[in-house]
Amino acid sequence: MGSTLFDKVWDAHVVKKIENGPDILFIDRHLVHEVTSPVAFLGLKRRGISVLYPNKTFATADHNTPTKNQHLPVEDPLSANQLAAIEKNAGDYGIPYWGLGHHKNGIVHVIGPENGITVPGATIVCGDSHTSTHGAFGAVAFGIGTSEVEMVLATQCIMQPKPKTMKIEISGSLSFGVTPKDVALYIISQLTTSGATGYFVEYSGKVFEEMSMEGRMTVCNLSIEMGARGGMIAPDEKTISYVEGREFAPNGADWDRALDYWKTLHTDEDATFDKVISFEAADIEPMITFGTNPGMGGSIMSDIPKDFEGSASYKKSLDYMDFKEGESMLNKKVDYVFLGSCTNGRIEDFRAFASIVKGRKKADNVTAWLVPGSHVVEKAIKDEGIFDLLTEAGFEIREPGCSACLAMNDDKIPPGKYAVSTSNRNFEGRQGPQSRTLLASPLVAAAAAVTGKVTDPRTLMQVESLTE
Description:
Layout: H1 5-12, E1 14-17, E2 23-26, E3 29-32, H2 38-47, E4 57-60, H3 77-93, E5 97-98, H4 108-114, E6 123-126, E7 140-143, H5 146-155, E8 157-160, E9 164-171, H6 180-191, E10 199-204, H7 206-210, H8 213-221, E11 230-232, H9 237-243, H10 253-262, E12 275-280, E13 287-289, E14 297-299, H11 312-321, E15 336-339, H12 341-344, H13 347-357, E16 367-370, H14 375-383, H15 386-392, E17 418-421, E18 436-439, H16 442-451, H17 457-466
Parallel strand pairs: 3-4, 3-6, 4-5, 6-7, 9-10, 9-12, 10-11, 15-16, 15-17, 17-18
Antiparallel strand pairs: 1-2, 2-8, 13-14
């Protein structure tokens, strides 16, 4: 019997199988940031242990960083302490560290692919749940806890039970105005936030083959929101073209050997999955959430469902959002728009946002935070003229960081305000105490930003397309 893509990568990294227990898995790349690492490093120091492979570990600052005036001292004491700690720990243990002001600095799941740290067939971990992003390259990538961060630093291995396998296939091509973010939100709405619990997902079908690498990263990023341990897409020519020539990618003879291996990374025809789920691309429209978890969402054209999930938690969610069953999502007033995060903070996301904004102005009632995922993205925004287009339309481009995705910094949505956000979670208070989040794609976010309300972006795109 053949093997799945996941089985091939996982099994190739098993150092030892523990009878009736987890596997001991070797980790190729360990990504570290300032929030989940200080206690792990403290554990090493207490035990007098060094980092086994500093050259396989990469550190950045992203979660607690301000997105304005990064050249000034960080005002928040907790954030300042955590940033100082990771800088010292990285220096003490010889780990590459890209802090504030460094040209490689940015969100950990954005800079990994940018620098060729993320490659097909690798095992990648980070003390952050959205490490699943890197699965877009055919890597087995997943988030870990602080005690596990310490384990990987010390041993370059981790103990993990092997997840079951799930294939999610989507046939057909996406319709006009439908983006990878919509695909992910659609899948989560169908499976719920626990529908893939215990599984590692492989995305398959024409829809994913046609996606750019950045689109694939968005989909894999959101795997965790359906309960999956991670998600991955088989590498192809797009993957190889993206990786080739990046700083930490293999080169020379190593590249040739890696390429031979990467070409084997696909699910065999006779392989079986524990579960297979199929969807049709034609059923997917621009999406938006109306509740307080990523599964509470639907087409931007649909009304808020009645008796969704049939539970008291649904009523509680609508009460929090101040929405009612049967209401239309269209035309609901928007106070804030957030473009950014490890889900949608890449250059393609800014291009999409700018395509809607072009020829228009920011709505007066909207406060917009546009935050690139890295300095590389920030530079591309300027080089491509997107910066000028957006600033002339009344928008402000901030400095790289996680920003309002999780509000561990100064970028917090005020209580009671509605934010159309391109991030990944809409939990109560996620973007600030008592804030209300509507998850959506960059196109939906842009449409809200220029109209001041929830708007189907296709209505704005159609006008534009008729003039081309």
